[in-house]
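$ run holo --ligand "flavin-adenine dinucleotide" --emit tokens
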Amino acid sequence: MLETELEQHRNRLRELLGDSRVSWEPSQLQAHKRDTWFLNVYRAVHGRLTSVPLAVVFPETTEHVQEVVRYALAHRLPVVPYGGGSGVCGAIEPSARAIVLDMRRMARIVEINEHALYVRVEAGKMGESLEEELRAAGFTSGHFPQSIALSTVGGWLNTRAAGQYSTRYGNIEDLVLGFNVVLPDGRLLCFPPRVRWASGPDVRQLFLGAEGTLGIVTEATLKIFPLPESALFQSFSFPNMATGLEAIRQIVRNGWRPAVVRLYDAVESARHFPQASSGSDCLLLLISEGPGALTAAEAAATAGVCAGLGGESRGIEPVQRWLEERNRVPTFESFIDKGVVVDTIEVSATWDRVARLYDQVVAALQRVPGVLVASGHSSHSYPQGTNIYFTFAARPFSPELGEQTYLDCWRAAMEATLQAGGSVVHHHGIGRVRKAWLGHELGEALELLRALKQALDPAEILNPGTLLPER
Ligand SMILES: Cc1cc2nc3c(=O)[nH]c(=O)nc-3n(C[C@H](O)[C@H](O)[C@H](O)COP(=O)(O)OP(=O)(O)OC[C@H]3O[C@@H](n4cnc5c(N)ncnc54)[C@H](O)[C@@H]3O)c2cc1C
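-- output --
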């Protein structure tokens, strides 16, 4: 884009929205050029992610969002919604022509309905701040992604996020009752809160996980829950992952729903819980919460299942430790500084496949040249199956091989997951890193998604380059 054209767009945006809502300060452009995808952090550290957007816009109302979208459509400029930028799949990588829409000034709680148990909140609200305000009123959202301090409500909806307490409360698609979304032509769609949907296909679902490609969410209505009356902690040690997974299967199959159900393999048990782990066993952490009578019954029943499978109690200390440390993660930069590439990859499978999937993905990752460690844990469970959240770290044989080694690890994990009959994503989304596997996941439905994109956004202005693979 010519410099004069660039200046014209920037000045025009300021005329539309006011000076304080539009920035092209170099520091703002830099801060909005990527999300937290490892590969783009790596490229940025090595000076290979140089493109910055045209401008960053900070809307304060839905009308501001509509104005920007209409302007962008008239001038065929891409618009990239930006929540907390904590996405880890490369869904945010604006081109030099793009307008980034930072939603974080739209952060008001519109209503806490204590009687009907829901909250209406603007989409740029950060998770931690939402939870603090709900707690002050005696409620919880039940949604605790590890990134709760880094992510927004709009980001959660657009990535189909999962929280650490999901086994009891559900994932974001279970927690959302309605929302408002600005379409790529500037129209506003409003879905009021509905406890169930039977008006034909649930069209709300089309926008969940869309990664900002189908609309810009400006407000959402989420379920809330009274703060739990009691919480009970337990942990158990199992000789291997397969037995620990069997314990979870039996617990959820019998109708119990501990809020937190986390099974770590031997590598991660030793890493996170050195006091409780023997070095070769797998630790299962359980938190039961809710009415006192329920948590007591659930804790007794889950302990019985674990004992029946040879699980040995490790007490409450590992759970307390996890609660203290659960949201602390080293930065990607700290690994890059040491010449190491790392990432996490979350997938899922039904109970008949998941133990094999765990073994096969770890083995596939270990075969990639340079891999130092490959490990996994299960953290979101259902009566029919569970997720496995893999972590890998690799030291490329030379700095030039960094990106290749990283991509080889992803390919190995994705292919092994598919071979084991799993789903290649559980909750981080598709972004750029998983685009190549979306077709495997959706089959013919990929064309349906393309048709939907074409129908809603024929000019392809909303977040181009993410989610949908190139033809
Ligand atoms: C340390 C760490 C821990 C994490 N833990 C978890 C976890 O426990 N569970 C989990 O699910 N994820 C986790 N993530 C991933 C990430 O936090 C989630 O994907 C989160 O939902 C992203 O929210 P965000 O507001 O940061 O969105 P962003 O990264 O800003 O955006 C994500 C996508 O949503 C789009 N988008 C953002 N806001 C809007 C909007 N209002 N309207 C339309 N599109 C929008 C963006 O364009 C982009 O495509 C973690 C990430 C990190 C870095």
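-- notes --
The mean pLDDT is 98.
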